[in-house]
Amino acid sequence: YVLNRNWQNGKLWSDMHENAANQQSLIRIMDGLIRRCSEHIFMCTLGVNEQGNEERGALIMAVQTILRKLQNKPGVKHV
């Protein structure tokens, strides 16, 4: 079951809902951490994982979401 006052009674909680909720939580956490940085953030990513497959993890997706939002805000520099 889901502990959420806005959740519809009788609606099933699926993996899709779980993944979306986890991604939104990660975005909020990353946004809070990024806002605490006063100058620079250095990030390094690899295009592929240890098996040679393209890596599209939750962390990089959360950071990209935050960067897209910051680019659309007036007065934000160096994004």
Characterization of this structure:
- By secondary structure, the chain is mainly alpha-helical.
- It has one domain.
- It contains two helices and no strands.
- The longest helix has 22 residues, at 15-36.
- The N and C termini lie far apart (40 Å).
Spans of at least 5 consecutive residues whose pLDDT stays below 50 are: none
The CA-CA distance between the termini, in Å, is: 40 Å
The fraction of residues assigned to DSSP E strands is under 5%
| Average pLDDT number | 81
- Which secondary-structure class do the elements indicate? mainly alpha
Biggest sheet overview: none
Number-wise, the strands total 0
**N-to-C order of helices and strands:** HH
Q: What form results from the Cα inertia axes?
A: flat
Helix content: 40-55%
List the helices and strands and how they pair.
Layout: H1 15-36, H2 58-71
Structure in a nutshell:
By secondary structure, the chain is mostly helical. It is built from two helices and no strands. The mean pLDDT is 81.
List keywords for this structure.
single chain, 79 residues, mainly alpha, 2 helices, 46% helix, flat
